[in-house]
Amino acid sequence: MARNWMDKCKAFLLDIFFPNRCPFCGEIIRWDMYSCAACREKFIEANGKICRKCGKHNCSCVEGLNYDMAFASCFFGSDGVNKAVYDFKHIGDTNIAYLTAEDAAEYMKAENIAKPDIIVPVPMGRKKQRRRGHNQAELLGRCIGKTLDIPVRSDILYKYDTEDEQHLHTREEREKRVKELFYVGEKRLAEGESCVLLCDDVMTTGSTINECARQLKEIGAKKVIAVVCAVTKLEKEEA
Ligand SMILES: [Zn+2]
Ligand SMILES: [Zn+2]
After folding, report:
1. What's the CA angle centered on 143, arms 26 and 98, to 5 degrees?
2. For the chain, how many structural domains are there in total?
3. Contacts of 122 (CB under 8 A, 6+ apart)
């Protein structure tokens, strides 16, 4: 399964002091589970309903989409999913990340999609990451990496340290601004690194994923597959 034996020992021991809980409803669950059965059934539903290309519930495929396909496990917006995403972001509770990893792996296998070469998490500004202690996209990347046995590369894509004032901008301004937030290092991707799995916790408008994918293609990515824990159901909702 997804976790290696050391992670399993850690999960087992941690469970004695901090019982494992369902990320959606908060019920206590067995130490080696990622959610309760009812919530898994209820919330891990998006991959069967979204457009595989743009990742949206209401397909909004446009020309100039830079990523090639998208996988998402949950729809953002319900109390359960909002709680799971919040706890992942702020406490680093990775249950939803492992669920996303297993779910994406199952769908990729069923749809005969070749295993990506590397995983690139959507980066966080260094100062912000230091403040928070972790980058949830990178945590998700590591969970997917363990599940699919793919290396995680955090030395490819970077984000400038800017204050997050996204809510102050209109959607057009935000899309323009997102282009100035990310940058790639000097390195170009080698032949064996050209199929990239790009991951983030949440996709809303998709402009972050789209810009990161554009930059990855500029340095040699041939295919970019986006994987997120949750996607917003309505196009008009913003990040
Ligand atoms: Zn539950
Ligand atoms: Zn679409």
Report:
1. 30
2. 1
3. 137, 157, 159, 198, 199, 200, 208, 209, 212
CATH of the domain at 96: 3.40.50
Report how far ligand 1's centroid is from the alpha carbon of 26 (Å): 6
Using a CB cutoff of 5 Å, list residues around ligand 1, an ion: 22, 24-25, 36, 39
Which pairing describes strands 195-203 and 223-232: parallel, antiparallel, or unpaired? parallel
Q: Give residue-wise pLDDT tens across range 178-230.
A: 888 999 988 899 999 999 999 999 999 899 999 999 999 999 999 999 999 99
Q: Is 149 left (phi over 0), alpha (psi -120 to 50) or beta?
A: left
The reported pTM is 0.90
Q: Which ligand is in closest contact with the Cα of 68?
A: 2
Residues of the domain holding 204: 37-232
Q: How far is the CA of 82 from the centre of ligand 1 (A)?
A: 13
